[in-house]
Amino acid sequence: MENGNEEREILMIELKDDSLIFRFPETREAIDQLINDEIEKRISIYTRSYTQSVSKWVRIHNIEQDLERMFLNYSKKELISHFQQLIESESDYIVGSDSSMEMSVSFHRTVRVPDDGNEYSLPASLGHFNLKHVDDFEDNVPVPWLSRGGVMMPIYQSEAMWMSFSGICPFALKVGTGKINAVNGEIWNSGLNSFNQDYVVIPEQPWLDGYNIGHGNVRQFVASTLGAGNSVEEQISGRGIYGGIQLEAFTFKAKSYYEKFIAPHFPDSISEFLNYIYSKLRPYDIEMLNCNMECSEKCMGLGMGGRINQEIYQDPYEAEIWETKLRSRCYIHLCNSLEWEKYTGESPHHKPIDIKTYEDLGIPWFDYYSDSLHLEAPKAFENLNDSKNKFVKEW
């Protein structure tokens, strides 16, 4: 689903508390406009017979005259405010707030599960990995990192990682490691592929612990030094030049989101609208009426670890609903602890943990269940292990 020259990239990504925040302000503004236009239209219709409608509603519901006066004294601005509150309470979309169209991605330190052929439950988070802007250390980091931008993250060679996602609105998120897609096993490319799904859908997919191998399992994301031949990138492409993690995020077309999640919550009549306002009045409000009315060998990639029980869910939406002309992406460069200290002047804020210590501390394992359909295993991931894949694709 490439769009050639029409595709525009927006780089609204914030690094906050070791999490990446992806924002789509253009889409949010377009949705706000659709909401406000519909509210203006409804208010215009309602005000034509507002007094009669309120009086009729008051008689039907046997409402006190003081409340009738309150409704009749509402200004247009107050009615618009009530409309916005109705939409926000029913849809979780907040008009005028960037948080309505933002997604958070966090990277969690965790224990490596044994790569022994058995299946394990989801391991707990041992805290977030540190993230820092690459540009803040431009004199120290490898030159190819500067051309890609993004952030960097320290990871010990004995560590594993999982990602968590959160967002109010639906997002499609592509996840790659060393420019190999972790969902369908294909070489990384921009845009969305809904035929051979190459992305996860947020918030339906709250976490991703590894590479999709189907049958309700993933192979854990584990640290792997480039050049040793063990990273997924090297096993599939035959080369280890990128490393790191690649993320690319998309959200709905504004009109599609509005029609699917906002429009159904508008009241069918002025009577229904008045019912909503009345239901939100507090006793205090009523009482007051009476008173007042490219990479070096020092770079790191990710390889496949042990098996974890986790589904990768199918996209429940139609392909046409995603806005592919707007995208937001970030490159997460991985480096070992020594290089991190050299680049930043400080040690990583954590130490790795092994599975014995994890269990000795009594840290729990987790399960997650959803009725959503899951994706099948990509063929590219079927035979990956500690040895090189026989199948090497040219770039």
Topology:
Elements: E1 8-9, E2 13-16, E3 19-23, H1 25-48, H2 50-61, H3 65-72, H4 76-91, E4 102-110, E5 119-120, E6 122-123, E7 132-133, H5 143-148, E8 151-154, E9 160-167, E10 171-177, E11 180-181, E12 200-202, E13 207-208, E14 210-214, E15 217-225, H6 232-237, E16 245-252, H7 254-262, H8 270-280, H9 283-288, E17 299-309, E18 322-335, H10 337-344, H11 355-360, E19 365-366
Parallel strand pairs: 1-18, 5-17, 8-18
Antiparallel strand pairs: 2-3, 3-4, 4-9, 6-19, 7-8, 9-13, 9-15, 10-11, 10-12, 10-16, 14-15, 15-17, 16-18, 17-18
What's this, in brief?
The chain is an alpha+beta fold. Helices cover 28% and strands 26% of the residues.
The fraction of residues in strands falls at 25-35%
Task: Give the rounded overall mean pLDDT.
Answer: 84
Total helical elements:
11
User: Which residue ranges are poorly predicted, with pLDDT under 50 across at least 5 consecutive positions?
Assistant: 1-6, 288-293, 387-395
Walk me through what this model shows.
The chain is α+β, with helices and mostly antiparallel strands and 395 residues long. It folds into two domains: 25-96 and 255-288, no CATH class; 107-253 and 295-381, no CATH class. 28% of the residues lie in helices and 26% in strands. The protein is built from eleven helices and 19 strands. It has helices at 25-48, 50-61, 65-72, 76-91, 143-148, 232-237, 254-262, 270-280, 283-288, 337-344, 355-360, and strands spanning 8-9, 13-16, 19-23, 102-110, 119-120, 122-123, 132-133, 151-154, 160-167, 171-177, 180-181, 200-202, 207-208, 210-214, 217-225, 245-252, 299-309, 322-335, 365-366. The strands form two sheets. The protein has a 17-stranded mixed sheet that branches. It has a two-stranded antiparallel ribbon with strand order 6-19. Strand 2 and strand 3 form a beta hairpin. Helix 1 (25-48) packs across helix 4. It is elongated. Residues 1-6, 288-293 and 387-395 have low confidence and may be disordered.
